[in-house]
Amino acid sequence: MFSAAEVAQFKRDGYIVARALAAPGDCAAIRAIAQRDLAAAKPPVEYETDTKYPGAPASLDAPGGRTVRRLLQACARDPVIVRWATQPAIAGRLKQLIGPQVELSQVHHNCVMTKNPSYSSVTNWHQDIRYWSFTRPELVSVWLALGREYFENGCLLVLPGSHVMDFGPQQMDEALFLRPDVEANKPLIVELEPGDVLFFHCRTLHAAGNNQTADTKFSVVFTYRAADNLPLAGSRSASLPGIPL
Ligand SMILES: O=C(O)CCC(=O)C(=O)O
């Protein structure tokens, strides 16, 4: 469980890292599944080119066009993954942050992020809630590092406290990414060791660089909501049932 100070830190900053929360054996097992599915490009996947982020290959037929960025539907890939995402060590902490009844959204995140050294793109500053549709903008994502994550291989950057800031439309571009030319932000770099778990609010601004190393970076990411924070009827967020914890 989180201490009271850690809960307060999450509320203030919009994120918290639980160091070495995942057992090395769990990380190795999930990483092996990810490597297997990445080698086979096992669907459903999102390619780098689908993101249209800066530095992404222009099309599926361009050099690096078949580089996988996300192995989607992680929970359906292997029981090891869904067990990890719903285990008491995660559920208990999420209940402290969200409330007594928590569900995992199968629609949002629920993926293995793979960041390829040759063809990765840059993810500009954004809040995940921008394309999600729920009664309240109160969801928490859980990001498990399956290997070391650091600046050079494209780790996350977060803006502490941004989950409670109001941003005017002039501060965002058409795709709802923060415009760096409007506001000079001093990013905090979130370096993670294998097994470290980042909990972050759906309104916390975050970004990530491309991978400038020789190795693919693997992380697995899930999003959770209070059971009474229902997706809006007819929205993509409502397209699959939640998994109760
Ligand atoms: O690893 C990255 O590039 C960041 C991904 C991200 O921020 C997201 O999917 O919301």
Largest sheet data: 9 strands, antiparallel
Q: Under CATH, the topology is which?
A: Jelly Rolls
- The percent range for helix content is 10-25%
CATH class: Mainly Beta
Q: Which superfamily, in CATH terms, is the homologous superfamily?
A: q2cbj1_9rhob like domain
**Global structural class:** alpha+beta
Backbone CA Rg: 17 Å
How many discrete structural domains?
A: 1
- Label the CATH architecture: Sandwich
What do these coordinates show?
With 245 residues, this protein is an alpha+beta fold. The protein has a single domain, classed as q2cbj1_9rhob like domain (Jelly Rolls, Sandwich), CATH 2.60.120.620. 22% of the residues lie in helices and 23% in strands. The protein contains 6 helices and 13 strands. The protein has helices at 4-13, 24-39, 48-51, 74-77, 79-86, 88-98, and strands spanning 15-18, 45-47, 68-71, 102-105, 111-115, 123-126, 139-145, 156-158, 188-189, 197-201, 206-208, 217-226, 243-244. The strands form 2 sheets. Strands 1, 2, 3, 4, 5, 7, 10, 12 and 13 form a 9-stranded antiparallel beta sheet that branches. A 4-stranded antiparallel beta sheet has the order 6-11-8-9, with no helix packed on it. The longest helix is centred in the N-terminal third of the chain and has 16 residues, at 24-39. It is globular and about 50 Å long. Mean pLDDT is 91; it is low at 183-188. It binds 2-oxoglutaric acid. 2-oxoglutaric acid (AKG) binds next to strand 5 and strand 11.
